[in-house]
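Q: Give me a protein?
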Amino acid sequence: MSAPDHKELHDLTSAMLDDGLDDVGLARLDTLLRDAPDAQDYYLRIVCLHSVLGDDLCVDKRPIALEPRDAELHDVAPGPGVPPRGPASTGPIATFRPSFRYAAAAALVIAAGVAAALIWSSRPTATQTATEQTNAATLIGGDRAVWADDSGALQPGESLDAGPLHLRSGVAQIVMASGAVVDLVGDTTFRITGPNSGRLDAGRLYARVPHAAVGFAVATPHTTVTDLGTEFGLVVDPAADTQVHVFKGRVRLNSDRIAQDLPAGRATAVDGAGAIARTLTPDPTLFTPLRSYADRVLDTKPIGYWRFDESTGDAENLANPAAPARRVGVATTTGGPALGSGGNGADRSNRALRLDGTGYLRVGEFAGFDRADVFSLGAWVRTTGQTPRTIISKMDVGDTNRGYSLFIDANRFVWVSLWHDWARRETIEIRSVAPIPSQRWVHLLAAYDGSGKAAGVRLYVDGEPVALHAAVDHLTGSIVTDTPFAIGARLGAKADPPFVGDLDEAVVYDRALTPAEARQLYQAAPPAKETRP
C-alpha cells in the first residue's frame, strides 16, 4: 500500500473513531480494508494507538511502533477523558471511544470480507488475557447483599477479577479499576469484562463515572451503553428490553439498529431487535437503593447542604457553593465512614465533623428566615457527655436574643427555638418529650410552617414525628438578626459553648418538609450510620 493510501486510510479511520464518518466514507474504508492484509494491519495499529492515547486500555500495553514512513501521518488523538468530537453518526459503525478489541469489532462489522482476519489479529494472548482480567474491580460495600453460590461469599474490600457476578438480593457497590462506581441491586446478573467495562444480563445497575473513567461501557442483550461523563441507570429484562435513564451528562447507545447519544433528563427503552421501543421519563425511584445519600438529599432541593468531608479548608455547601461553612477555632474532622461501611455512593471516604467544644463552623449571612417564613433544619448527630450543644442556628444570644436554632440540652432533649425577645418571652420554644439516645447516630429534622405558632413546628427523630412540649408559645415580632448563620454554635455576646460530639450532613430548606420526606431522608442513609462507633 502506498503512502498516499496510508494517509487516506489513517484519515478515514480517525474520522470513524471520532464519529465523523459518513456513508460515503464508510464505503471507501470498506474498500481499502477488503482483501488488503497490510491495510488491515495498519488499521489495527491506528485503532490501538487511538485507544492508548484516549486513556482506554489496549490489549497489548506496549508502545505501538509505527513504520518510519507512516510517522508523519499521525495526528494526536484526543487526550484522556475527552469525548469523541463531532456529531454522532447515524450510520452503522458510529462507535464510542473503544478499547482495542471493541474498536476492531465495531469497524470490522462493516468490512465483511475481512472480519474474520481482523478478529483473529486482535485476539489477546493467554498471558494478556490473564493480566487484563486480574484486579478489574473492587467490592467496596453493600446493604444486606446475598450472592448466588457461583459468585462465592464476597466481602467488602475484596478484589474482583473479570467474570460473572450474580447478586440474589440486597445492594452491592463495585468500583472498577478505572474509577467508575457501579451499584447493583438484586436480583441482578453482571459480568465484569474489563477494568472499564461490563455486561448487564438482567437486573438493575446505577453508574457514576468520574472524568478519568469516561468511556465506561455496559453491554446488555439489547444495546451497548457507553458513558460520556455521566450518571445513568439501566434496567434489563432479557426477554423484553433495556431501559436507559440518564441523570447527568450523556451516554451513547449502540446496537444493530441505533447509534445515538442520550443526554441528561432523557430515558428510552431498547427492544430485542436493538431499536428504540419507546421514550420514557427518567425515573430516579427505580434506582433509589443505588443512588448516593448526597444525590437523594439534593433531589429534595435544600438551600444549604454541608457534608463535612473536607480534611482542610472550608466545608462546601453542595446546594449553594456561595455559602461554604468556614472553620472557627480548633474544629477538626475525624476519619471513618459516616454513612456506612465503604462510605456513601461515589465518595468512598465520607467523613463527619467532630467538635470538641472549642470551635464551630460559620456560614455568615445565610438563611435569614423571619417569623412568617417556612423552613426546615436538620442533621445527623452523635452526642457525647452531658454538655448542651447547638446543631444549627442563626441567633444573637445576648440580653434580648433574636433568631432561631436547633439545640440539644444537657439532658439530651431537643429544642426548636424561634425568638423575637427572649427576656420578654416573646418566643416559641418547643422541646421533645423524650431525650434522644447518646453515643449513636441520630437523624434530626425540624420543620416550621410560618404560622407563628408552636403548633406549626414539627420535630422528626430518625424519620418519625415525636411528641413535643411547648414551653413558650408567644411569638409576636420578627426573628431576623444580623448574627451569622452557624453550625455547631449559637453566637452573640452571651454565646453558648460550641457543640461537643459529631455532626454530619447538615441541611437547610426554605420549605417545611413533609413526614414522608423526613422518613425518606432517614431511610436514604445506609443502616451502619446508626451504629458507627
Remarks:
- DSSP finds nine helices and 29 strands in the chain.
- The longest helix spans residues 37-53.
- Residues 48-132, 336-349 have pLDDT under 50 and may be disordered.
